[in-house]
Design brief:
Blueprint (H helix, E strand, L loop, with lengths): L1 H17 L5 E10 L2 H20 L2 H6 L1 H15 E12 L2 E11 L5 H15 L5 E4 L2 E3 L2 E2 L4 H13 L7 H4 L6 H7 L3 H11 L3 E14 L6 E13 L4 E14 L2 H29 L3 E8 L4 H12 L4 E10 L2 E8 L3 H8 L7 E6 L3 E6 L2
Parallel strand pairs: 4-7, 5-7, 10-14
Antiparallel strand pairs: 1-3, 2-3, 5-6, 7-8, 8-9, 10-12, 11-12, 13-14
Helix pairs in contact: 2-4, 4-5, 5-10, 6-10, 8-9
C-alpha cells in the first residue's frame, strides 16, 4: 500500500511540475494610471520588470535595458499568466491598484525566449556591431530609402541586436562599385569596408521588384520582389550564410505596391538572418583569427601552435599562412577575445605583446 501511495505522490508531483503554474513567479506590485485599465497595465509591466530583474544578471539588464523595457512595455500581458487585484483606490485624480501577478518564467515562455536571445547576443556573439546594406531597384531604377533593407534592420533590432549601423551613415555608398565588389565575393573590399565602420558582421545584398499585374477595373496593383543577401564575418570576409526570398505586395499605386513587396521580402530575410546569427551564437566554440608579427622562423610558429593548444578553452588551432614573419592562425575558442589575449601574454616559450583586439580577432607582436 505504501508503494502505491508513493507512486501516486510522485506522479502528482511530476504533473504539478509540468503545469504552467509551476513555472510562474508571483510578485505583488502597485500600478498607477488615470483609469483602472491604465493602472492595471502599469502594474503588469512593473511585475514583469521585477521578475526580469531576478532572471538575468545585472550586466545583461544594463546593456540591454532599452530592448528589455521595450519588450515589457509592448508585450507585458503576453508574459503574464494571471493576476488578482487585492486593493484599488482613487488618489489625487488617479487610480492606484495593488495586484498579485503571476509572470510566466517557464523555459519556453515568450519572456524567457527574449531574455535567452539577449544573453546569446551578449555572450555568444559578444554584442556585435552589425551593418546592413541592400541596394534595391524597381525594374532598373534605384529606390531611395530601401524598404527591404529597412525591414531587415527592424527584424534585427526586434530580436535584440542594439548596435546597428545607422543606414544614413552608409547611404552614400549603397549604389557604389564597392558594394558591387563585395557582392561579387571580394573579401578584401568586404574587410576594408567593415573596418572603416567598425562592423563585426555585415549583411550585404540586392533587392529587385517589378510589376506583376492588376485586377481589371479594381484599381489595385500587384508587384513581386526578390531579395538576396549574404551574412559576412567582417574581419575575415568569410560568408556565414546566404539566401534569397520572394514576396508580393498590393496597393492602389504601383510604386507603393513595389515597396510593400520589397518590405515583405525583407522581413523574410530579416527572420532568416536572425536565425543564422542565433545559431552562430549558440555554438560554444567561436572562431577567432590570431595574427602574429615578428616570428623569424617556422620553428617559432610550431612552438606557438603547441602553446596555443594548451590554453584552456582552445579546441582547435589551424595555421592558415606564414609569410614575411607574419603568421595567421584560426582558433576555435569557447571564451572571450580579451580572455584569450590575456593568456597569450602569459605564454612561457613565446613572448607576445597584444596590439589589437576585435570582436573576433587578435593581433600580436613577438617581443625579443
Amino acid at each position: 500500500m505504501n508503494r502505491v501511495w508513493l507512486t501516486l505522490v510522485v506522479a502528482c508531483l511530476a504533473l504539478l511540475l509540468c503545469t504552467p503554474l509551476a513555472w510562474a513567479k508571483e510578485v505583488t506590485v502597485q500600478g498607477y494610471g488615470l483609469t483602472r485599465d491604465e493602472a492595471i497595465n502599469d502594474a503588469l509591466r512593473n511585475a514583469v520588470e521585477q521578475a526580469v530583474g531576478t532572471l538575468v544578471d545585472s550586466q545583461t539588464l544594463v546593456q540591454n535595458s532599452e530592448v528589455v523595457r521595450d519588450e515589457i512595455y509592448t508585450k507585458s500581458r503576453g508574459f503574464v499568466q494571471d493576476w488578482t487585484i487585492v486593493n484599488e483606490q482613487r488618489s489625487a485624480g488617479q487610480t492606484v491598484v495593488t495586484a498579485r501577478v503571476q509572470v510566466d518564467t517557464s523555459p519556453n515562455s515568450k519572456l524567457m525566449g527574449q531574455l535567452q536571445r539577449l544573453k546569446l547576443i551578449e555572450q555568444g556573439l559578444r554584442d556585435p556591431r552589425i551593418g546592413v546594406i541592400i541596394p534595391e531597384y524597381y525594374i532598373s531604377a534605384r529606390i531611395p530609402d530601401p524598404a527591404g533593407e529597412t525591414a531587415v534592420v527592424k527584424k534585427l533590432i526586434e530580436a535584440g541586436f542594439s548596435r546597428m549601423v545607422d543606414p544614413r551613415q552608409i547611404q552614400s555608398i549603397r549604389y557604389t562599385n564597392t558594394v558591387k565588389s563585395i557582392l561579387q565575393g571580394n573579401q578584401s573590399d568586404a574587410i576594408a569596408f567593415a573596418s572603416s565602420y567598425g562592423i563585426d558582421y555585415l549583411i550585404v545584398g540586392e533587392a529587385f521588384s517589378q510589376y506583376a499585374g492588376n485586377l481589371e477595373g479594381s484599381g489595385v496593383y500587384s508587384c513581386r520582389a526578390r531579395i538576396e543577401a549574404k551574412l559576412i564575418k567582417a574581419d575575415t570576409g568569410e560568408i556565414i550564410a546566404t539566401n534569397g526570398f520572394h514576396a508580393g505586395g498590393v496597393d492602389i499605386t504601383e510604386f507603393t505596391a513595389a515597396k510593400k513587396s520589397l518590405n515583405n521580402a525583407g522581413e523574410l530575410m530579416g527572420d532568416y538572418m536572425v536565425q543564422q546569427l542565433m545559431a552562430l551564437a549558440s555554438n560554444p566554440e567561436k572562431g577567432l583569427q590570431l595574427v602574429v608579427r615578428g616570428l623569424t622562423s617556422y620553428t617559432k610558429v610550431s612552438i606557438l601552435e603547441n602553446e596555443l593548444k594548451q590554453i584552456r578553452g582552445v579546441k582547435n588551432v589551424f595555421i592558415r599562412g606564414y609569410n614575411g614573419g607574419i603568421v595567421t592562425i584560426d582558433i576555435n575558442y569557447t571564451g572571450a577575445p580579451k580572455t584569450l589575449a590575456n593568456e597569450l601574454e602569459k605564454l612561457s616559450s613565446i613572448n607576445l605583446a597584444v596590439t589589437d583586439i576585435t570582436n573576433s580577432g587578435i593581433q600580436a607582436l613577438m617581443k625579443y
